Amino acid sequence: MTRRLPRSALLPAALCIIGGIxxxxxxWIHAKGWLAQRxxxxxxxxxxxxxxxxxxxxxxxxxxxxRLHLPGAAxxxxxxxxxxxxxxxxxxxxxxxxxxxxxxxxxxxxxxxxTHFAPLAGLRLGDAVLVERIxxxxxxxxxxxxxxxxxxxxxxxxxxxxxxxxxxxCYPFDAVDPSGPMRFVVxxxxxxxx
Length: 194
Prior knowledge:
Blueprint: H1 7-48, E1 64-69, E2 77-81, H2 85-88, E3 93-94, E4 105-110, E5 128-133, E6 138-150, E7 163-170, E8 182-193
Parallel strand pairs: 2-3, 4-7
Antiparallel strand pairs: 1-2, 1-5, 3-4, 5-6, 6-8, 7-8
C-alpha cells in the first residue's frame, strides 16, 4: 500500500524540489567554469611544450596564445585566440586582427569587466603587466594610459612603432546593463623582454 502526502505537504515538497534543481544548476555552472579553467591552463602548458594545436577540449574552436599577469589578479589569465563571445565566456581573448603580444604594433586583449578583467579597475599608470607567449618568450609592458572611450566613436589603430598591449573591457565596471557603448582601455607599452 502506497502512502500519499497530505495536500498541505505538497507545496513545501514542490518548493524543496525546485530549490534543489536551482542549487544543482548553479553548482553545475561553477563546476563547468572551474573545469574549463583547468583545461585551458593545461592547453597553455601543452602549447608551451610544443603541441601544435593545443585546444582545451576536442571541439574547441580556440587555443591559448598567451598567459597574462595583471597586478591585483589572484591568478594569471590564459588568453585565448579570437575575441568572440563564446571565447570571452572562458577568459580574455586576443583579437586576431592585431599582432601577437610583444611584436611591433598593437596587440589587443578583450575581456569581461565583471569576471576576468575586473582587476583592470585597480590598474594605475606605471604598473607592470607581464605576458608569457607560447613560444616561451615573456614581454613586459608598462601601463601608460587608462582611458574611457565611446566605442561608437572611437576606433583602435592596429599600427604602432613599438610593441603595445591594449586591454579592453566594458565600462563602467559596476554597470547593471552590460550593453552600453563605453569601454575602458588600458594602453601599455613594451618595457622589454626577459
